[in-house]
Structures are given as structure tokens and as C-alpha cells.
TrEMBL record:
It comes from the Bacteria. PROSITE patterns: GST_NTER. Residues 2-81 form the GST N-terminal domain. The lineage of its organism: Bacteria, Pseudomonadati, Pseudomonadota, Gammaproteobacteria, Pseudomonadales. Pfam families: GST_C_2, GST_N_3. This is Glutathione S-transferase like protein. Keywords: Transferase. It comes from Pseudomonas marincola.
């Protein structure tokens, strides 16, 4: 069995989601710190160009996007369940909404000038400038657009009110009574807002939500130890990718194993990854690619939120 390796950086909200998933599952993992802005040469040696944070590595298998990472961790350790029996559709649907709509609102609120002034008060001006340029490039070319700050402020009370109501009526300490992927997907945008006193009241002014968030964050991050990017690349180079899933599925657009394709996110961070399509399933796409540093790797993408086209 290969170790779980998470490529991430501390202030990434989606990385916090993945860290909490590892904590919820009580898993041990290796931590590889990556830069918050491009270039990320060690990461892209593994992914082939995908630049979003985080990425999960297991040997020579590279998992992109936290929606797919969650499913891979569920396969790694079935209990406690992220997709409780009978609630799989509900929790996955709410998680998808949170990762898109709720996160979009949080980004707009966090990037308000008064909030950013606090967040970047102790960093060199050149880094703040590089960060702004990097995020402009990250959101270029995809379907996602920055929600106007005024609209985010206008809509935020309705979103939080609905969360309050769900927690009051859900019959337990979590959104669907027992913990699920929905809790972690809703939690990470709120964790992002809690990072400064400017935006923290947007969470703390809702007592039931704040108490629930404390319970979710209480799962912690599991047991981790540090690893360098070079070490992670060596792990991939020396490993053999896992066997492909056994699934009877016909791709609606006719893509076939062995075909040269490129896969990219559709919302933001749309840098394409090219390779040989090995597997096309209901939830997952797998590319084979070869890198001079990492060797032969299988890069895994979720079907939802990504596009595929022939090279």
C-alpha cells in the first residue's frame, strides 16, 4: 500500500476541506507544501499542468479536485462514511452547491478591499502583487466570474439563514444528522471567512452555524508528516499505477480508451492536461501521461465540472 500524499498550502480553503476529510477518516498522510501561486514545477510534473489546490497522490496515481478526492478516500476507508447510505445523492448535491455557489460568495467577501488589507498586512508588497496577478490568471478563460461584492453581501444573509434552518431542523449535530461530505464542503468557505476579524462576523453572527462549524473543524487533520516535492516525485517514479476500475460504461460522446485527449476544468483553473485516455466512467476520467521526472502516472479527474476533447 502506498502512502496518501496531499499537495497543498495552509491558507487554501479547498486544501482545508481535504485536510478535514483526512481527519474525519482518521487517516495518516504525508504533507507536501506547494506554492500558493504559479509556477508549481513539482506539482505540475505530476499533474501535467493542472494547477488547482489540493492534489492527492497515491503512488503513481494523481487525484485532482476535492470532489474526486473525497470518493477516493471513501474507497480507502469506508467508515466513517462521507456518503451515508440512503443519503448519497443529497449530500453530494449539497456539496457540489457549496463548492460552487457558497465558495463563490466567500471569495467575493474575502477579496473585499478592507479584508484583503488585513490578510496581506504582513506580507511583502511584491507578493501581494504577484498573488493578485496569479488569481486573475486563475479565473481567466473559464465559466466562473467574480460575483460582485455588493451582490455577495446582499445574498449572504439568505444563504446563512438557510443553513441555520437546516441545522435547527436536521435532527442532529450536522447538516443531515450525521457527518457527511456536505458538512465539509460547506465548512471550508466559512473557514476561509473566519481567517480575519473583518469577515469572521459573517459566520459568527449565526450562532447555530458557528457551533456546527466548530464541530466540523473539531475532526482535525489526522496524522501527518512532512515530505518534500522531490520525494513525492520519486515515489511516483518508482511506483506502478493502480489497476483501472472495472465499470461497464459507454461514454455519451464516444470517447474510447487509447484515445489522445485533453481534460480541463470548466469553471476556473482551466489549464488542460493532455494524455492517453485509459478510463471513462460515470464519475471519473483517467489519463495516462509520462513525465521526465515523475515517469508514468495516471491522472484522475471527476466527470462533473471538467471537459474532455480529442487532441
Amino acid at each position: 500500500m502506498h502512502e496518501l500524499i496531499l499537495h497543498h498550502y495552509p491558507t487554501s480553503p479547498f486544501a482545508e476541506k481535504a485536510r478535514l476529510l483526512l481527519g474525519f477518516k482518521q487517516l495518516s498522510w504525508r504533507s507536501v507544501m506547494i506554492p500558493p501561486v504559479m509556477p508549481k514545477p513539482d506539482l505540475t510534473a505530476l499533474t501535467g499542468g493542472y494547477r488547482k489546490t489540493p492534489v492527492l497522490q497515491i503512488g503513481a496515481d494523481i487525484y485532482c479536485d476535492t470532489a474526486l478526492i473525497a470518493r477516493r478516500l471513501e474507497a480507502e476507508k469506508a467508515t466513517p462514511a462521507l456518503f451515508p447510505e440512503g443519503q448519497g445523492f443529497n449530500v453530494a448535491t449539497l456539496a457540489q452547491w457549496a463548492d460552487a455557489v457558497l465558495f463563490q460568495h466567500a471569495v467575493s467577501l474575502v477579496f473585499a478591499p478592507e479584508s484583503m488589507a488585513v490578510r496581506f498586512a504582513k506580507v511583502p508588497p511584491e507578493f501581494a502583487k504577484a498573488f493578485a496577478a496569479d488569481r486573475a490568471a486563475l479565473f481567466s478563460g473559464g465559466t466562473a466570474s467574480r460575483l460582485p461584492l455588493e451582490q455577495a453581501r446582499h445574498q449572504w444573509p439568505a444563504l446563512m439563514g438557510r443553513l441555520q434552518q437546516q441545522l435547527q431542523q436536521g435532527g442532529g449535530d450536522f447538516l443531515f444528522g450525521q457527518p457527511s461530505i456536505a458538512d465539509f464542503a460547506v465548512a471550508h468557505p466559512l473557514w476561509f471567512l473566519r481567517a480575519t476579524p473583518i469577515t469572521a462576523p459573517l459566520v459568527d453572527d449565526y450562532p447555530e452555524v458557528a457551533a456546527w462549524l466548530a464541530r466540523v473543524l473539531g475532526f482535525g487533520h489526522g496524522s501527518l508528516s512532512e515530505m518534500s516535492g522531490e520525494e513525492a516525485i520519486a515515489v511516483a517514479r518508482e511506483a506502478t499505477p493502480a489497476a483501472l476500475p472495472d465499470e461497464d460504461f459507454i461514454d455519451a460522446n464516444g470517447f474510447q480508451p487509447g484515445q489522445a485527449v485533453r481534460i480541463a476544468a470548466v469553471d476556473y483553473g482551466v489549464d488542460p492536461v493532455e494524455g492517453e485516455l485509459l478510463f471513462s466512467g460515470r464519475e471519473e476520467l483517467i489519463l495516462r501521461r509520462e513525465d521526465e521526472r515523475a515517469g508514468i502516472v495516471h491522472v484522475h479527474f471527476p466527470r462533473l465540472g471538467f471537459r474532455i476533447e480529442a487532441c
